[in-house]
Design goal:
With 476 residues, this protein is α/β, with parallel strands linked by helices. 35% of the residues lie in helices and 23% in strands. The chain has 14 helices and 18 strands.
Length: 476
């Protein structure tokens, strides 16, 4: 019988991975082993895939001595643990709608908060909600709604109008998602009163304004509240109703857990970015303030920690879209027909590639997903000409100070070409897009542990940071 301190499960859209850790609360915390299985969300019970992944983990552990001291965990296939945490992006992940006042101000700040917490933002509106917006929200059935609008003690009419409209959805169209209010502090009480009167069953959580004053982002409180609400409501997602029967500790959205790990590492290693290429999405996380040089030209504030999620760039779920993007780029570059991969390869793709041809196709799709995702994430410097002459404007995230480019996710960690793909992101000289410099070092999360360590860091930050540095071989 093996015993470990902690199991952390990452329940993805296609695979479930379980990682075991031991030696917590000691000077030498260790990663013990890993198991995986296909996720069984379509079977209506993800615990089956979780149990298979634990069995796979157990089969790979050395026989003989116990691995630690049990403090109240449960057995499964010859394994005992003291705590079990989880990250999840199964059942569609955390689907949110975001509603604010001005797109480039409060709406953008609210969207940054939602994405940084690990959400998939399915709908964004600016200004007053109309009937068409309400129909879209009702058909979307979001897991959570973020309501923002107005700087503190500024305009209140729009956010209160939107509160009335959303409250009507609860009573008239069966909306049942928690609402996070992160708008004008002066309107918070009135907004709560509207929901109490018109939708008393609605759960409304009030946090600090995401955009309290002009050019100031305050996304931290909203991110923490989103993660707490996700953990509370994840059991209601399709196929996830059994997760609490096994997971007794923390549950986080997988992208939020990766961001947590990135921020933890930033505290010691400095500016970095993380590429997480998965079966359903490709996420880019960056933790950097950018350079003072480009910062002078920023037209809007950027958060220190930024995440973009590309729902059309999943290597498995969006393979056909990625293939179309790849072919268009190759043809535009003058590639011959022999240089373009045959479309029939798409029919051979599997969640876990097994043949050389399957791996070759996944490598090409992964490289394209990385290229397009970083192109969308990175900021852009533009030259404008006016009556006073030429001026420079910078929009988006400045990556020119990034020291570390980290690859995680199933594709980048399992493919031999992962490092080469990421090395292709570096540039000798910035032109238009603010890409990482040639001096940035590339490392691969070969054991696929960033999400697990991000979850672990909620309770064991020192241990998570120590293991993170060791598995990435990052020198401080």
């Amino acid at each position: 019988m093996h015993r470990v301190d902690l199991l952390v499960a990452e329940i993805g859209s296609t695979t479930t991975v379980v990682n075991a850790f031991d030696g917590l609360n000691t000077a030498n915390p260790v990663f013990v082993g890993q198991g995986q299985s296909l996720t069984t969300v379509r079977e209506g019970d993800v615990t089956r895939g979780l149990e298979k992944a634990i069995a796979d983990l157990t089969a790979g552990l050395p026989s003989g001595a116990d691995q630690g001291v049990v403090r109240g965990g449960g057995p499964a296939g010859g394994l005992q643990w003291s705590e079990l945490y989880a990250a999840s992006s199964a059942a569609g992940g955390l689907r949110m709608s975001v509603h604010g006042l001005v797109y480039d101000m409060t709406v953008r700040a609210a969207k940054e908060a939602a994405l940084g917490a690990g959400a998939i933002v399915k709908m964004v509106t600016a200004g007053k909600l109309g009937e068409g917006d309400l129909k879209e929200i009702a058909s979307l059935h979001p897991n959570m709604i973020l309501l923002a609008g107005g700087v503190d003690y500024g305009e209140k009419e729009t956010v209160l109008h939107n509160a009335r409209q959303l409250a009507a959805l609860f009573s008239g169209r069966g909306l049942a998602a928690p609402v996070l209010y992160a708008g004008n502090a002066a309107a918070a009480g009135e907004a709560q009163a509207i929901f109490r009167e018109k939708a008393p069953a609605a759960e409304v959580v009030v946090v600090e304004n995401v955009y309290p004053r002009i050019d100031l982002l305050n996304v931290g409180p909203s991110r923490r509240a989103i993660q707490a609400l996700f953990e509370k409501h994840i059991v209601s997602a399709p196929g996830m109703n059994q997760i609490r029967s096994m997971v007794k500790g923390t549950i986080r959205p997988t992208p939020g857990a990766v961001m947590q790990a990135a921020q933890l590492l930033y505290e010691e290693a400095g500016d970095l970015m993380v590429l997480d290429v998965g079966g359903a999405t490709t996420d880019v996380h960056s933790v950097t303030e950018g350079s003072p040089e480009w910062g002078r030209y920023q037209v809007a504030p950027e958060p220190l920690a930024k995440r973009t999620v590309e729902g059309d760039l999943g290597v498995y779920a969006n393979a056909a879209n990625l293939y179309a993007i790849l072919v268009e780029r190759l043809r535009s570059a003058g590639a011959s027909p022999e240089e373009i991969p045959p479309e029939e390869w798409l029919g051979e793709l599997k969640p876990i590639p097994g043949t050389d041809r399957e791996r070759a196709m996944v490598e090409m799709l992964t490289a394209e997903a990385v290229r397009v995702a970083v192109e969308r994430h990175a900021g852009e410097a533009r030259q404008l000409y006016g009556p006073t002459g030429r001026s420079t404007l910078v929009e988006g995230k400045d990556l020119t100070q990034v020291k570390w480019i980290i690859g995680t996710g199933g594709a980048l960690t399992r493919l031999a070409a992962g490092r080469r793909i990421l090395e292709g992101l570096r540039v000798e000289q910035v032109t238009r897009k603010l890409f990482p410099p040639a001096t940035a070092r590339v490392v691969i999360d070969e054991k696929y542990l960033m999400a697990a360590l991000g979850v672990m860091s909620e309770s064991y930050p020192r241990e998570a940071r120590q293991i993170l540095r060791e598995i990435l071989a990052i020198e401080i």
